[in-house]
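Example 9 (inverse folding). The structure is encoded as follows.
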């Protein structure tokens, strides 16, 4: 919510919130005192300034983190990095609605309509968003740009921050959610084409996970599987075919991020929210497309 003005602020040059919105806020924010209301308003005002002080707003975000459980916090989560479009809307960490479409192409045509459909089905408007969680890569170059551009555009228009998540950590949390009884070392491997894998190792202890290595793009022939109990993702079988090692298990069911899991993960990372300008795509290798060389043209007069 770009929310919460006191009545004395209604005529401020920044703008105003309609009467029904004020009524909704008064009903929903039971424990949010006047000091917190002014924090939210101040953050909103500062977002509108071209020369806003980032340190001040980051401090305000930390203060809001201390009270966010008492606010009706809406998070939109979106992903378009791989072979699917996925959206989810959460309120206070609970999933209100979600959509997913497996598709090889057409992400740009469907992502925005899916966001609208996800919200309209539960009667939530985009103006009520507090944060947008978005995957920043790695993935297809087009998919990463589509998702991140949509998230940045909405965040700038609404004056709200983004919560950036990597594709690999999102998939890792999906695996952890489904296997909370396990304690093991695992890796997420995504087929990056051209004989490479997007690869990252994690350690899991009954649902809690930590990365033990940086995400990287690795040639299949150079994958290090030492100490790994299971590899998940679209690249799992590719690694098994190359390595030919039976000391680890594979699970290729985790092909792309699920927005519902992303939203829950983002709820625990609200303190890490960033301005749109501070969020960049995670590209682990150069693009497949190669800029053509300049032609050496010789012009002669006949």
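The amino acid assigned to each position is listed next.
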């Amino acid at each position: 919510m770009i929310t919460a003005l006191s009545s004395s602020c209604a005529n401020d040059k920044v703008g105003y919130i309609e009467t029904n919105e004020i009524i909704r806020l008064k009903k929903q924010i039971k424990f949010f005192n006047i000091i917190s209301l002014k924090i939210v308003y101040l953050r909103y005002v500062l977002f509108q300034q071209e020369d806003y002080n980032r340190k001040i707003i980051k401090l305000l975000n930390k203060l809001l983190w201390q009270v966010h459980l008492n606010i009706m916090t809406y998070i939109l989560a979106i992903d378009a990095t791989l072979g699917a479009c996925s959206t989810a809307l959460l309120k206070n960490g609970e999933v209100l609605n979600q959509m997913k479409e497996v598709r090889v192409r057409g992400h740009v045509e469907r992502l925005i309509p899916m966001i609208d459909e996800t919200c309209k089905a539960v009667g939530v408007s985009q103006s009520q968003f507090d944060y947008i969680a978005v995957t920043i890569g790695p993935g297809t170059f087009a998919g990463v740009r589509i998702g991140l551009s949509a998230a940045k555009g909405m965040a700038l228009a609404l004056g709200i921050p983004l919560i950036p998540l990597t594709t690999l950590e999102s998939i890792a949390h999906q695996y952890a959610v489904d296997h909370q009884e396990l304690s093991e070392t695992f890796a997420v491997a995504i087929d990056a084409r051209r004989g490479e894998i997007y690869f990252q190792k994690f350690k899991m202890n009954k649902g809690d996970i930590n990365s033990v290595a940086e995400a990287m793009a690795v040639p299949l022939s150079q994958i290090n599987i030492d100490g790994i109990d299971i590899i998940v993702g679209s690249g799992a079988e590719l690694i098994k075919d190359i390595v030919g090692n039976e000391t680890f298990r594979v699970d290729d069911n985790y092909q792309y991020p699920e927005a519902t899991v992303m939203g829950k993960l983002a709820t625990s990372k609200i303190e890490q929210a960033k301005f749109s300008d501070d969020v960049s795509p995670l590209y682990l290798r150069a693009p497949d497309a190669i800029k053509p060389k300049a032609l050496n043209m010789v012009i002669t007069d006949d």
